[in-house]
Amino acid sequence: MIFSVDINNRIYKIDSANPLDVSIPLDFNGAQPNAYDVEKATATACESENLIGDTRRGGSCNFEQIKFIPHCNGTHTECVGHLTDERISIYNCLKDAFIFAALVSIEPENAYQTNETYTIELTETDKLITRRAIENALQKLANPESRIPNPKFDGLIIRTLPNDESKKRRAYMENPPPFFSTEAMNYIAEKGVKHLLVDMPSIDRAFDEGKLSNHRIFWNVAPDSRAINEASLIHNTVTEMIYVPDEIRDGAYLLNLQIASFAADASPSRPLLFKIYE
Ligand SMILES: [Zn+2]
Predict the structure, then answer these.
(1) 13 C-alpha to center of ligand 1: Å?
(2) Distance from the alpha carbon of residue 241 to the mean position of ligand 1, in angstroms
(3) Are 137 and 104 in contact (CB under 8 A)?
């Protein structure tokens, strides 16, 4: 089906039958990405005395028990409940079904070669996604010849470079991922981005003394606080461990962020991008 959509007072089209999937399928029997060296995600046929949830073993149908950690085993979307004592759920926070989003490719910079900073002291091997790099990438999209001039994006999708398929099965403890500088995260917040999607397991440093400072900036939660306040942005979401194949070009898309309706701070997710036509 072809849909007409009104974005910033101009009419564009999308083809609902041709989404571009930027999730990492969670293969319970194969290679998986992994943060913090947690156990692999597993799916096991349910079994009792006279019942087996596996047709190959004589069961009437397949039904499996799935065990996984959304934050560590693959593509997932999380809400502010990731930080708070109050158990705030992703199914309640994510209200936007369609999101006007920018996809940009970013080359992380060596922490010692930029003047941008982070909440804890950086080491020589840290790599930062900087404000400067995001600003440059967004400026390119906003040029007058682009399909959508002067855009205001509710979604920002970051593809880090280099980009290769090993992201679909990467063990992040052995391959520390880049993360955002404080300046970059303040910039994203200033721009009013509501939905941030990244191909790393976290927007913060994996070991950050538990501060999760970028997460707190994004949701407007005070440093070290475990509670939301009146200005917290409870309908914002962060999606981590996506994979955006090279064939999908930087640009503007309509994003449909699909989640499981979990009463939990995070859910596995499948972000779909739709190309926008004139
Ligand atoms: Zn997470």
Answers:
(1) 33
(2) 8
(3) yes
